[in-house]
Amino acid sequence: MNTRNIIRILIVIWIAVWALFLVRPYFKKGLWKEYSALMRLSLDDKRAFVAGHELYGFIRFASGSIGPHSSYKIIGLEDDPLSYRRAVYYLYPNIDREDPEFLLVYGKAGVSYEGYGLFKALTDDEYILRKI
Amino acid sequence: MTNIIRLSAWFIVVMASGWSILTIVLYRRPILFLPEKLALSYCVGLGFMTIEMALLSFFKIPFTIAAMVFAWLPFFIAAMAIGYISKGMGLLHRKAEDDGNRFSLPERFFIFGIIFEVGYALFRALIKPLEAYDAIAIYALKAKAFYLASSIPHDFLKVLGDPISHPEYPLLLPLAESSVYVFLGYLNDLSVKIIFPLYYIAGLVVLYFVVRRFAVRSAALLFTFLLATIPHFNEHATIGYADLLLAVYYSASFFYLLIWIRERKAAFLILSFLLSALCIWTKTEGILLTSVNMTIAFIYILRFKKDDLRRGIIYIAANAALISVFLVTKRLLGLQVHGNIVGLNLSEWFGSMMNIKRIPFVLYEFQIQFFGPKKWNIIWIIFIVAFLFNFRKAFMETLRPVTLAILCILGAYTFVYLIAPQEAIEWQISKTTGRFLLHFLPVVVLWLALLFRDKDTEV
Q1: Per-residue pLDDT averaged across B106-132, rounded?
Q2: In terms of domains, do A72 and A101 share one?
Q3: Size of interface A-B (CB pairs under 8 A)
Q4: Which residue on chain A is closest to B121 by alpha carbon?
Q5: What predicted TM-score, i.e. pTM, was given to this entire model?
């Protein structure tokens, strides 16, 4: 078999693999639904879509409540580093600190910390504690 | 609509800055084709705009459109003067025999494939705001802080909060994102993603014109198509990581070093140096990749004479100086991070070299990547088989520097895994191997193009 034929065969295999992995996520992961939903959304709704509506709603609630340049710590995202990083990003210029003014509690009901009292609540398990 | 106009203004300023710099440093030496110069103008322009922003911060001048444009005025004027003196833009107009031919059916298919992938990358980038882990944790947070402060605050690591991800990383990407926000006038983490597909397009254009110097048009289109359709390369044009930027800067810097080795026109070496500098400014791995360029240059200049030898020595010395300045600056700023090999002292280096037991993990991960068509199609399989069947040829003539560069990088990254002081290195290896391979992927595609150019690549 000459080189030209080998190249042709490789190109055919290449195109087949290309097409397969191009199309597969649309069926396997339902990309159609995701993209068609995203196309209709505003920028802020897109952020909510990627971060999760519940978490993003809580972030908006928290940033609106504590005001800019406050220090905070998030309780409840310890096992979800990606959501935690997104929250830190969206909450900036509020700053994540070890000894914060606010504790932002997400997804945990009845959390209490010494020296902190309830400041504002969005739901039973989404609320803000403030240093007393 | 205002968004598009402001984003276009950002793009024009970036392109004009890059064009001016290239026109000045290449001074009337026509070594680039027009689309190639435009592609490089974007990469060089954005890279130098971020350096300009770092300087503005140093002199406590806030980031404003006026400040960012005004700083380039002398460069615009100088470039226009050079254009006037040269009675042209100093472009390469070499026409190959097959340039005027009609496109064959396979060529049309490759062009369709490339255009489709470019469109798809633009779509995927601009449908979602920044959201991937590193994109947010390492780059976007810093970009947001810089934009809101209109500067790089001298204590920016403190204002970002306690758990900072990779504070020691170079600032090209965060500053590039901030530059978009400055032009938009607000923080838009969706529009800012235009940065990435534009690098993707630039990388494809540069590869096409570099391959075109060595091979026929259909081969150049074929290998550009291959690069464009590698899923991992395309994906990185959409997710907001700095790895694609590094891949484009490094590959282009190596390509022009290779052409200099072949043609010995000093302008190629200057271009390679500029792009190497931007590698260092993009990611820490840029130091390693620039060192590979220096190694390749060193191997070749040993047999060069007089002017070429002198130029090669200056190239190596200038790169070494840049790396030293970068490392010293990081040390002065206290940006040495636990787990980073750059921060190791000599005894730690030797102590870490005993991590031989990691080799199976590294080889296993390489194997997963090489035989993973979901990320790479069959590019690595083709490369490995072609390398084994053309072992002697791989170390002959034009292929030799490319082969040496690929082997150097593979060896260097393996070595980094062996000496890295992290304890959970298996996790680290599994997370980073794909990105490391991406950094020199266009060089691998060029290697294949050079190998097959002597064979009959008309398809």
Answers
A1: 96
A2: yes
A3: 88
A4: A22
A5: 0.93
